[in-house]
């Protein structure tokens, strides 16, 4: 019998104890005449107990305990006859591989090394899903707050939360940023965050000074509007400074923190989320994530990334909007939201933060598709409003209120000058030539 066909490598899904395995699903391509069965076995062995060539130490006992198992190989299309095979193009197939999680226990870096390690250098291989059993998930705490906790903290029981990231992105002093903060907050923005491009404690905006200035602006705005403003200070930094930044930010008065997760890694996020001294919500920014996810046949899917963010404790996580700024596919946009929202054993939900070219004219589309349990993230759509950032924030609240009350936003704009100004400037998604606002292709 050919070794790479051995049944021990190919149990049925019904033939394994699912609680002992993390199941990885891949999209893989091979040559027209590729031996999909042998190729799959070789991938599984490479990423678990063996190597490209048989080694004496990989005994049957070692393989039984630690080798990955192939539980599904599905050719797409699902060819049955040799005559059906393409001659000059690759064959694609879905591969499902069960990894014994005893190999990596709760070690996220080691898990990633196992499920998408060396094989990530192979062409035409993308990790599209990871399935975690309850036994594995028990090792993780997930978000401290989640959707329910954030809504309770902010006293916003039903409607979408409005977020603003301060623009300009970087280079501004705490005093300059605080003025922008106040104007956005007083207009009704619920949560304001540092941009992803200002983080830690740069010379022009030291961490404690920034927190104190922005939180003073928040208190000033909150007194006027009668609502709470959340501020996520971006503490992203070298890992050795990460916890210290969080402690210093909270000591200075920050009521939330933010981290660029792909810069510090999933374990950096988990380090913060599972620290009992860090008792504030954590916003996760996903910049640089496209380097891992955007290639259609390489890397990992956005859904996998979102699942890991939730597992490691992100209370809020950025999901790019289906506008032309990033031009996300609708199904990816929806599925990423579902991964954060749907039941995941004891792990709390992650609030989806939708950003990337959002204006008040996009609110009906977002709420029609995803409902009210979303965070609407806005940068230039507030700070670029023709009447100023306060009016920009007001326009978003007006748009949300109109949708919540079943009123067309163009009708609502007839009596609300802030919303009217936004729609005149940017239009309505799906009605006007909205995508051209962000078209850099031409």
TrEMBL record:
GO terms for molecular function: magnesium ion binding; ribulose-bisphosphate carboxylase activity. InterPro entries: RuBisCO, RuBisCO_lsu_C, RuBisCO_lsu_C_sf, RuBisCO_lsu_fd_N, RuBisCO_lsu_N_sf. Residues 146-426 form the Ribulose bisphosphate carboxylase large subunit C-terminal domain. GO terms for biological process: carbon fixation. Gene3D superfamilies: Ribulose bisphosphate carboxylase, large subunit, C-terminal domain, RuBisCO large subunit, N-terminal domain. CDD domains: RuBisCO_IV_RLP. Coiled coil: none annotated. Residues 18-135 form the Ribulose bisphosphate carboxylase large subunit ferrodoxin-like N-terminal domain. Belongs to the RuBisCO large chain family. This is 2,3-diketo-5-methylthiopentyl-1-phosphate enolase.
